[in-house]
Specification:
alpha+beta, Cytochrome Bc1 Complex, Chain A, domain 1, 5-stranded mixed β-sheet, single chain, 6-stranded mixed β-sheet, 13 strands, about 20% strand, 2 domains
Length: about 425
């Protein structure tokens, strides 16, 4: 057991192996639990798409639920999973897709076998019903004129124009309408391959039994290759302000900055910066924006990091007339940290809370599987001790330097979705330097 900053951190008992086809397996027996989670991670998502294929990864994730050779209907498949005591959850992200099946310990081997069937033997037919479902999902992000109004999507389009990092995960409706089974099959063959995937099981199970089950169902999975993402743009876009008029009682606001990715030596510093600003009701963002000035019900700040780049973002939803004041308040928060480092107490508290979160990963098999599985997928440290030590070395001055380097208001990107009259729009544009 390791202790960092006074917090005891028992290491995860991870057993690592790689099958002959390159498929990475991580087994984490946690006998104190009553359940286990089998999670599958694959490099597939909007970042690996083109403008013509945008949305295909998300559509494929949905279609894996619609039946396999043994369970040819969605109802049959879901019934088989639920009879084992579980529910299959999946999510498509920008740079990976995850599948999670949490089960009682006695059915984890059967569940793993069934998940392998879902991942490897999808029928990918009868697309029409699923297209209707996803169409409704896409429409939630559009206004009546078909314009994107999801603030996060609009913000990413501003930060990464003409690049897959600026795509929405669900993609446009016209792409969805065009996709056919052959498109799904081609995407599945390219991405759902052994060298592009990781399986991680955490919780109460017999490692020897489960290892044999995984070998039996994944050993002959085609090797494929590890799909690399499109490189992050090197040149910052000249346009740094975006406004979408959308009727409602509030205006959504994002103030964003380009940062390095999770493989950068500065990643632990940016992680702690996010926690100094926003990790509980006593931290600077909530205290200043909500408690002191009453600008919003809730506000946030944090770093959203990919492999080679990231976005540090502040956000809140406010009454329309408060939008310029919110932006100015964010700049004031940044200016304070540019001029003065956070206090030692702030940083120590942020470290302890992060370390406690690391320790509590063991309490939830899905959290454990995601910590180890995504780390293995992207080549990041899989040991809690390594992450803890990296964060433990960050000093207040390091955080100040990171703010000075990356959070310069002159390089901020400002996104608003709501109702701004000419005066408010002029004020916000001035703050954005637009």
């Amino acid at each position: 057991m390791t202790a960092v900053n006074g917090v005891s951190l028992p290491e995860l008992p991870t057993e690592s192996l790689t099958l002959g086809n390159g498929f990475r397996v991580r087994l984490i027996p946690l006998p104190h639990l009553q359940s286990a989670t089998v999670s599958f991670f694959v490099r597939v998502g909007s970042r690996y798409e083109t403008a013509q294929s945008n949305g295909l990864s998300h559509f494929l994730e949905h279609m894996l639920y619609r039946g396999t050779e043994t369970h040819p209907a969605a109802h049959e498949l879901n019934l088989a999973i639920e009879r084992l005591g579980g529910t299959l959850d999946a999510a498509t992200h920008v740079d990976f897709t995850s599948y999670d099946l949490t089960l009682p310990s006695e059915t984890i081997a059967n569940g793993t076998e069934l998940l392998a069937e879902v991942l490897r033997q999808p029928l990918l037919t009868e697309l029409s019903i699923e297209k209707q479902i996803i169409r409704e999902e896409i429409l939630e992000e559009l206004n009546e004129d078909g314009e994107q109004i999801d603030i996060d999507n609009v913000s990413r389009q501003l930060l990464y124009p003409d690049h897959p990092l600026g795509f929405s995960i669900a993609g446009p409706i016209e792409n969805l309408d065009r996709f056919e089974s052959v498109d799904l099959r081609r995407h599945h063959t390219r991405h759902y391959a052994a060298r592009n995937s990781v399986i991680c099981v955490a919780g109460a199970f017999d490692p020897r039994e489960l290892s044999a089950t995984i070998r039996s169902h994944f050993d002959d999975m085609p090797s494929g290759t590890s799909v690399e993402p499109n490189g992050a743009p090197r040149d910052a876009p000249s346009m740094r302000f975006s406004y979408v008029h959308e009727h409602g009682s509030q205006t959504d606001v994002r103030v964003s900055f380009h940062t390095p990715g999770v493989t950068s030596p500065e990643a632990p510093t940016l992680l702690l910066l996010g926690r100094v600003l926003d990790d509980g009701l006593s931290t600077r963002v909530h205290q200043t924006i909500c408690e002191d000035r009453g600008l919003a019900y809730e506000a946030f700040a944090g770093n959203d990091a990919f492999e080679d780049c990231g976005v540090f973002e502040f956000g809140a939803s406010v009454e329309h007339k408060k939008a310029p004041v919110l932006v100015q308040t964010v700049f004031e928060l940044i200016d304070e940290l540019r001029r003065h480092p956070p206090t030692k107490d702030e940083v120590e508290k942020a470290k302890r809370r992060y370390l406690w979160d690391l320790r509590m990963v063991r309490d939830d098999p899905e959290d454990t599987a995601h910590f180890v599985g995504t780390s293995a997928l992207f080549g990041l440290p899989e040991r809690i001790e390594t992450m803890a030590e990296q964060v433990g070395r960050v000093a207040p001055g390091d955080i100040q330097q990171a703010v000075q380097r990356y959070l310069d208001p002159e390089n901020a990107y400002l996104t608003c979705v709501g109702v701004l009259d000419d005066g408010l729009l002029s004020d916000v544009r001035t703050l954005a330097g637009a």
